[in-house]
Amino acid sequence: MTAARSPRAPDAPPRPGLRERKKIKTREAIRGATYALVAEQGYDSTTIEQIAERAEVSPSTVFRYFPTKENIVITDEYDEPLLAELAARPADEPWTDSVRYVIRKAVHLAVTEQPEITTLRARLMLEVPAVRARMRETLTGVGRTLADAIAGRTGLDPDGLEVRVHAMSLIGGLLEATTYWAEHGHREDYADLVDRAIDVIEHGLPTGKS
After folding, report:
1. Residue 18 has pLDDT above 70, yes or no
2. CB-neighbour burial class of residue 5 (10 A; exposed 0-12, middle 13-18, buried 19+)
3. Where do the coiled-coil regions begin and end (predicted)?
């Protein structure tokens, strides 16, 4: 017997239409061109014109999809499917377990499907102030969306202080785990670091040595 699912959960994610698939393909081409150029010549030396040429689109197309070069680096296609999956977790599952499951899945996708890009993004976030600032700004919006998802599972007010604090604590924990990973040369397991960050948010600091 399977557990009942949240009434908010869709039966199955709809397949994108042709227009949306073309948009996704264009975004992926622009991001792929950007990552390749940054790996070859560095972030500051990479221009929008070079990105457009490598992606075989016009500079105006790049700006239509991404308002700044920083946005190209920090965005991906994972947010909406993962938030939908959070809503689709079993209704009787503790919501903290649901959030942990979805975050673990996001990290797993990042390190298995795009390991080089994930490493590069973390390094750029650490080394380039403009990327770091844009990442923090973007994650604030993600945090509000996460608060809506948490509220949908708990029945709490999504704009209530407690929900907002918890959602942004999760976002901040992910950001710090990523920064720590980059600071230490990506030597440690990224998924383990994220798990440790979530443990701190759920249970507080570990007991110090006496």
Report:
1. yes
2. middle
3. none
